[in-house]
Amino acid sequence: MGFASGLAAKNLIQRPGRTIFSILGITVGIATVVLVFAMDHNTMVGRQRKAKDVEWQADVEVRPKSGMKSARRELTKLKGIERVSAHFQQDVLFHGSGPGSDRSEGRLPERETIRLFAMEAEIAAALGVYQLREGRDIAPDSSQRECLLGAKLAEDSGVGVGDQIFLSRPRRAAKEICVEGEFKKLGIPSPEPIDYPLTVVGLLEAEKIGRRSGGKMVVVDYDRGRELFEGVKIVESYWVKKNPDSSIENLQANLGEQFSFDFSTGVVVGQSADERAFRNGVRLAGLFAMVLGLYVIFHTLSMSLVERVREVGMLNALGATRKQIALIFFIEALFISLAGGFFGVLFGLLGADRLLNWGITTIGVGYSIPRFTVPWATVLPLAGIGVAIALIGSVYPMVRARSTNTVAALRGEDLGPQGGVTRGFQLFTAILLLLVLPGMFFSIAPVIGEMSEGFLGALLAGVGVLVVLIGLPLIVPSILTAICSKLTQPFDEWWPLAGQLSARSIRHSPTRISASIAAIALVTAAFVSLNGMTNSLRAEVEEWANRAVIGKLWVRGLPDVTYDELREALGPESGVVAIEAGDARVYNPFLILGMQPEELAKFGPCAKDAELLKALSTGQGIILSERVAEHYAKKVGDAVHLNTGGHGIQSFAVIAISDEYGYFYSPDERLYGIVASSYMQRYFCLDTDTTSFASLKLEEGNDGSVAIAALKVAYGDSKKLNIRTGQGILDWHVDDITKDFRLFDIILGLTALLAALGVLNGQLLSALERWKEIGVLRALGVTRGQVAGMVMLESAVIGLTGAVLGLAVGMALTPVIVEALQAISSLPLPHRSAGAWLGWSLIGAVSLTLISGLYPVWRMNRFDAVRAVRTG
Amino acid sequence: MTSKQLSVTDVYKIFGSSGSETPVLRGVTFDVEVGEFVCVMGPSGSGKTTLLHLISGLDTPSSGQISLGGRSLATMNSNERTLLRRAEVGYVFQFFNLLPNLNAIENVGLPLAIAGQRPKNHRKELEAHFERFGLERCLESMPHQLSGGEMQRVSIARALAGGQPLLLCDEPTGNLSQIHGVAVMESLRKVCDEDDRTVFLVTHNPRDATYADRVLFLVDGEIDPAHALHGPNISADAIHEVLAELHI
Ligand SMILES: Nc1ncnc2c1ncn2[C@@H]1O[C@H](COP(=O)(O)OP(=O)(O)O)[C@@H](O)[C@H]1O
Ligand SMILES: [Mg+2]
Q1: Residue B220 Cα to ligand 2 middle (Å)
Q2: Do A158 and A293 belong together in one domain?
């Protein structure tokens, strides 16, 4: 042991370059994976902060049709339902100060109407329908009266965690409902509100239900809510979880006519499909980095064996057994992999913390994650796998080296990269990396959400590409090296020696060259296909924008003007064709906007089709946005059920699917439907004659400048006035995509670094292997410049071949990825290529390999010519 | 029998597969007594290095018997041969084969380390080898800081440090100048006389052969006992005479 470890230590110290770059390779590989998982973990913890680890995901939100007595019982009787949880919403009066002092002065405190959400506390946290900004969830079955407050409400009232608030039934709570456009009193109004005290235990982010009522809302336990509204008729909704063995379609059939339902699981469970896709994508990128990192290390280690074959022979001649020699290699590898593992975990965690601090998360940019915790249970096994695989990679060549002939080694014969050892090693590597590693990876960190077919397809395609690229050096090293040495030929003209030498060095080590090429190609392919994918996402936004926002203006903060007043303010020259108002809105079950049919008649589908217009105005018709239609699988002719207070569940017929009407940027919502304003009036008693937030459809070719000027003149005094153009909104969305994918850019940057390290290690080891040859060349009068030229030419050729191969693979892969993304996110993604990125990837790959040649050049020029010549 | 350090009987070594077989050794037979200094001479490519590989158990003969220190190599597996080599053989290579990452004294201490001892505890003995070969200055030098003669003497010291009775030397002066070569050969002679070690040397240099107690000639893969030279008969002239007779 002492002998082996002493020799191993000497080897590590005497070859600092090899040691450091090997450690660096493992470090970067492991750091990337750790970074991804630490970020994902903290992103999720930061978003959920679950009080308990109850994972309860609702599949569907169900509302009983009017007249049903005991909806819960009916539901639990149905087949295929595993669990039901009730919740309801009500308006409620709120005040934040204690009742005592105010009462003593004989006055009631100022009360404000807010929205109350009552849900079963033990599952509320797990549902993910809200997100805590501060504090904790409501304790289940606590005798305490606890509540969570919306951000805006907390801010306005100055109430914080630990404070007490008071809720009371509105004087006419639920006793006044909207019937035929007028509020009708039912029963006797309650005499005076009774204050119901609650302790605030948490504040909510302005997201999901926390966004409702502009953040003026409160969440309470279901039982507390019932207490507060005792004796009041309440329309309840139920979150329903289906049996694992029953399908959504069955459930749908069972719910049948008695219930209206909403399968927007995204709204219910807080894990929307695109988020899931994004997180899975980030994880796959992490896996990719790890595979690449270990691939690079495998090559480094296998080459270092070749380099040292003579040493093995000599030690054996001196009586060192195979076991002792293997131990030397093992200890070296152990040190390198442990050091790599340690620094990988360290830098991975530091990096994750940094990125999270900058607001970059695994679900996009701009979320704040307050606290950093380390998910050791995932990080350590992942780092362990990395270290173990690096170790196996180093021990394997030793096992194979048993068959190495000591005599041949002593004779200084080349064990040869073409030798059986290397070939077998390649095969071993490919199997290990492609089957075992992803297998272990996914068992430690399972894919989020169900394996949809599209995702599985993409995964298989990805693994296929990895197989092909990693298999390349195994299958066709000679083809690649033939291409490469051909590529060097033209350079003979300018640098005869460098050209000849690099061609020879390339032909001499086909495995190293093709491994380097494969690494570069992998990263290039990843860059190209990622950028192809983001381009497709951008194109989707652009296509949507062309339908929905280009040629429109938005004006917000108007002083509740009528359409006529607004028209007048705009003047006759403004080029405004139609006005859409964004004020009349309900969420039921998705965003519903009330619009004036006369305005919609001036452009878009209603302008072309009088029948449509009629169905909208008088036929209880609804126009759905394309995304909402896709999301809820609604076709023209299907029914949408809206839950109204006074008229029960009302059925609207889908009459058109179009994005041309109804988009408003606040909240940024592409899931919506449009009904005639008269129905808004009738069923929800919403004022539809005036507006403070309007969208203005402009004439073809009008840029809106006249209208903007007119609006500024008319309403410029108002500080709240906010005008945005369609182009501005498009840019904002496109910018969002770019920002969201920054994390991928970072991960890919790390893999590029890894690939460069692979090339560097390969060249460095081949330089060390050939030190004598190079020393002799130097002694014969070869200049440093010529040595540099030889390495740089080789680098350039590797970079170029790798990049071209990567471009080809990446371009072939892009449509597959886009299809998969489409399958997961149900976005209608147009196919796009990476565009300018194709060129940049090429330039990037070549520059990267050139840079990675610098260290080997420097090292080679430090070889001692005299020593090389003297030792024969 | 026990006085035999090495015994080689009818050893054949054929390289290559059937069809393109190259017989390098064809029935080589000889013995080496304990404490003897034996030199095998032969032109380049005659199979001298191959013979050493067989004797040390690094390689196995195509047929024939070899015993080292009275133990036959024939039935041993590779690991057993390695352990026997560790116990019996000190190796001196033509190209020195010092480990570039270790300094001189660490290189010399290597056989001790391989045998599981701590070279640090044997510092005195190791330094003694250096003094003996006039290498006091070189204790801590790295191999590339040494001259060829120094490197070869370090590698002889290394072969001695393990204490093995048999020293196998493969053209130890092949890469050295005249002066350095003489110094190395005198060192080897000294080792044989003073330490009672057996020295088995292969070379194509007649001058080196003059230091031996017995000189054998390897020609066409065979050693003809009729041409062997013994003790007092050995001189540069006599060697040249035999070489001429054998058309070498
Ligand atoms: N592995 C091998 N395969 C085929 N021929 C070999 C092999 N090793 C050595 N030889 C041949 O054996 C002959 C003797 O080699 P060697 O023992 O090195 O000679 P010497 O040391 O006397 O110069 C040479 O002709 C050489 O080409
Ligand atoms: Mg030889």
Answers
A1: 15
A2: no
